[in-house]
Every structure is written in structure tokens, then in C-alpha cells.
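Re: the request from the purification team.
They wanted to know what the chain is likely to look like in 3D before they choose a buffer screen. I agreed to run a prediction and write the result into the notebook, where they can find it.
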Amino acid sequence: MTSQVSSPAEHADGAVVGEQRKPARAKETRRLDRVIIRFAGDSGDGMQLTGDRFTSETASFGNDLSTLPNFPAEIRAPAGTLPGVSSFQLHFADHDILTPGDAPNVLVAMNPAALKANIGDVPRGAEIIVNTDEFTKRAMAKVGYAASPLEDGSLDGYAVHPVPLTTMTVEALKEFELSRKEAERSKNMFALGLLSWMYHRPTEGTEKFLQTKFAKKPEIAAANIAAFRAGWNFGETTEDFAVSYEVAPAAKTFPTGTYRNISGNLALSYGLIAASKQADLPLYLGSYPITPASDILHELSKHKNFGVRTFQAEDEIAGIGAALGAAFGGSLAVTTTSGPGVALKSETIGLAVSLELPLLVIDIQRGGPSTGLPTKTEQADLLQAMYGRNGEAPVPVVAPCTPADCFDAALEAARIALTYRTPVLLLSDGYLANGSEPWRIPEVDELPDLRVQFAQGPNHTLDDGTEVFWPYKRDPQTLARPWAIPGTPGLEHRIGGIEKQDGTGNISYDPANHDFMVRTRQAKIDGIDVPDIEVDDPSGEANTFVLGWGSTYGPITAAVRRLRAAGENIAQAHLRHLNPFPQNLGAVLGRYEKVVIPEMNLGQLATLVRAKYLVDAHSYNQVNGMPFKAEQLATALKEAIDG
């Protein structure tokens, strides 16, 4: 991640950006430590692709980065309307960063709807690049503009760059045998080229990507590359952009290693594959497509060479049923879903609790209830993960805190499931799933050994001396029952949802036995070995303690940094394990006068903490489908400190 980008003058030669005119005068280059860019347009304008390509080149350059894709739930919302606006925000810097940023320094607005939907987030003085071709009377009226915002003075507080992106793209592609509509589709590449020039981003990767993406349509590939180069050339030659910017690589931020940009869902996929290899078990995914979890199914389906089998079921219930069957058969079994799917899977999760088989249930949380906000983020499934089953059916709960951390969380969930023979719920969310950041690719010897021992023969001796296999005879340390693979001679045993007799696994309606089995299953979960929570309290004098879980890690940590920079003492910790809690959590909570728990729900972790530890935790909540902003949290935490 320490590769260097050449200067614009060097880019002007060779095949990377094509033949370019020299600017009339040398342009100023300013050095910045960080930048927040937001691409916004119609859902058909390719903003996610544009943002992804800018992100990839930024990662290859060596900056630290964090992204926030934001797109409609509809496959194709009405063109030019506010509900149809799609955006992609990227925060990149020469130092360690934690969030996609609170407000963009640069907004690229491809149409009036994109401008109106995003202008409220843009601070005064920021740069706005506007595609003037789309600001027709009809398009502006569609989103409620009575007069053009480019002419009525409403944008006077911003550095506005009016650019006829559509016209210039069509002009740049006139040599290609494309219709005007086909040529217009490349305007996002023109915008990408312009922004790549403005921020000295590498270009080779994007050109190679376009050649690969459109390998079967070389004319389209060439047109997109031409539009990309035209955007670069425009930035180099126009007088409207007198300044370009450099953001140096974050050379001191990252430990030595090989890095790549990775999203949360991709990191989870790789973590599952790594877990299966470390366990020496085949990986089986039984799943039904659902936003925002579907990418895991798509990714794992590509890796048959690693022994991965994927099954796209007809519904959520069939998906988890197949996965549980695979667990019974000796696979590392996984099912992926979001909140509505967890509800449908709840009975089979309870069956997995009763059967005591390892099963990973991955919930990529989104806004609810019901269908809710399919493409927006929320972390409101915690209580469902804890209690969303009939009867006493305890399940371990693990939550990653960043996109890259999803890899390690997958390994940890697999460790718990395999060691303790239990289903495990992993709670990611849409923000982590679609967001991305640099990830250091670990060495194989850094990964945990997850190998398990299957039952091989009898494990119990009856009073008459007969050796038999008892499927519910437990390991004295973990309380896990043996994992017997079907077809192993002498290990035949009953399975099913009716209560089992301790030891033998026979059907039992005995009240005392049921009480014992319920308490034993709970004791197994309570006894899971999880690391102590680590507290970040550098001064040791803080009275206020911030406790978080899941994707709130970045905003909370960024807010805490701001407060400490302003001279405040504040402590912080973040939970990876939500069931069971770390053993030292109660003692940690007791050390502080004030406990604040920010969550993207109405206080679910706070409810659990209050109930278990009798701590008067203050809950700070947001459920608008978007992640917290660091400044917003810093203000709330300052009020808590002063209150």
C-alpha cells in the first residue's frame, strides 16, 4: 500500500491517460491530510461503480480509507426523483481514520435530485461539481426546484463547478459507433477521470478493470476508457479547476504487510473459507437471497476449489434446514440472512440448540420492522438474537466492529460453534457489509487451529459392562456433546426437536430431566471462554465510560478522539461478545460514575446491561438508517461528561 502515484505531468505521457494538451499555465497543487468525497446521481448513473473504482485506486495508492455506499431499495426507482438518488461517500487520509466522514468536502451531483438530496450534508465552502446538462426545467420541477439553484444564488456559499458532463462525454465518444444514449452512460467515467486528476489518483487499475469488465464488448470498453481519459484531460486543461490536491499515503498507519481494500461481506466470506480450512471441514452455505446479505452467497459460490458448497434455497426456512442437515453430516455449516430471515429461521435455530450442533447464523442487520429499510443500516436485532426463539434456547452472539474485522469475527464465531457444539449468531449490519477499508491479509500461521475430533466409537460403559455410544454425554470442560457423523458404525442415535434424555439422547418427557437439560444448555453458553473486555482509558481519571458494540466502533472512537483532543477525560470499550458478556464487564462498569451506550436502536444493549449489572446506563440512540456522525456523538458525550 505504499505504491507512489506519478505527477499529472508524468501521467500526460504514455498510454495511461492518452495524449493530453498542456495547460496554459502551471496549476497549483495543494497538500491535504484528508478528503471526503461524495458521488451522487440517479440510481442508473453508476455512482456505486464510480465510487468503488475511486476507492480501489485510493487503496492501491496507500491511503487509509472508509466508505459509505447509500442506494435505494428499489431495483430502479423513478429516474430523476429524490427516492431514486444513489450516493457513494469516501473518506481517505494520510493517517488513521475510522468513519466515512460527517460531511463531504466535495459533492459530485449528476442531476437536480442528487443535488437536492445531498446539499443539506455539504458544509459551506465545500466544492460542488454539477452536471449542468441535467438541470432542465422538467428535471428541476420534478424535485421541487422553482428556479435553477445554479442561478438563484442559493449556492453562493459553495465553490460550484458547472460542468456539462453529458455533452462533453458524448463529444469525447463521437468517434465510436454508439447511440447518444449509449454514449451518455459513460458520463460517470468522465466524472471519475476528473476526480482522479483532482486528487492525483492512479489510473492504471481502472483502465484494466474496464477492459476486463467489458471484455466481450471491446467497443464499450474502449468508450468508457476514452470517457475516463477525457475527464482527466478536462481537469488538466480547464481554467475552472485551477488547483489539484495531494493526499499522501498513510505510511505510518499500517503495520508491515500486504493490504487490500475489502468490504464487510467480502471479509466475512473470506473468514468463513479460512475457518473451514483451519477446521479441516467442508464449508456449506444454505441461504436465501436477501439484502444486504446476498453478497456472501454470491462470493462463496465462486470458491468451489476450496471445498465450498452453496445452496440457494427456495426460502429462508429451507436454507437453514439444509445448513443444519449439513452440520449433522459433518460440515462447517452456515446460513446467511437479515432480520426478517432470522424471524423465519427461529424455529430451526431452536432445533439446532436442542440438537447441539455447530451452525453459524449470520445476520446482516438492516432497518426494520418487517421489510423496513432494506438498503439502510440498523443494529436492532440484538434482542431477537438473544431471545427470538420459543423456550429457553440460549445462543452465543458475536458482532464485528469494522468491515475488515468481519474476517476475524467469522473465525471467532466458528471457534465457538465448533468447540461448544452450538449455533452462533453473528450480527453484522448494512454499514459494515457494504462499507470498505484497508485489510492486512494475515499469514496462515496467524490463524487459529479450529480442528475438531469426531466421535469414533463407544463413550460410555453400562452397569453390565456393555460399551455404548451416548450422544449427550458431555465434555466436562465445555459441556459439548460428541459430534457423531452419520454412517459411523455403532454411533447411531436419535435426533429431532423433542427433548432428549441426558446422556442417552432418548426422547424424554420427564420434568426433572427437562429442567436439567435446559439449565445445562444455558450453563454451556455461560461457560464459553471469551476474552476480557479491554478498556481504553489513557488518563485513568475518566468518570464517563462509553460502551459500544458492532458498527458503532468507528463513530464512537472518532468522537472520543475529538473529546480527548479538546482536553476531556473519557474512557471507551467495545464489545465483540454479546452473549456471554466478558467476565470482567461488571467490574469495568462499576469503575465509572457515568456509562453511555450509543446504539442504532432504541437501547437494546443498554437494556441487557441494566438488567444484568444493575447499572444506570444512559442510552443514546439513532434509528434513521444511517450510521452515527462523529461530531454528533462527540456533542452527546460532552453533554454526558458535563451533566
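For the purification team: Residues 177 and 219 are 8 Å apart (CA to CA).
Please add any questions underneath this entry.
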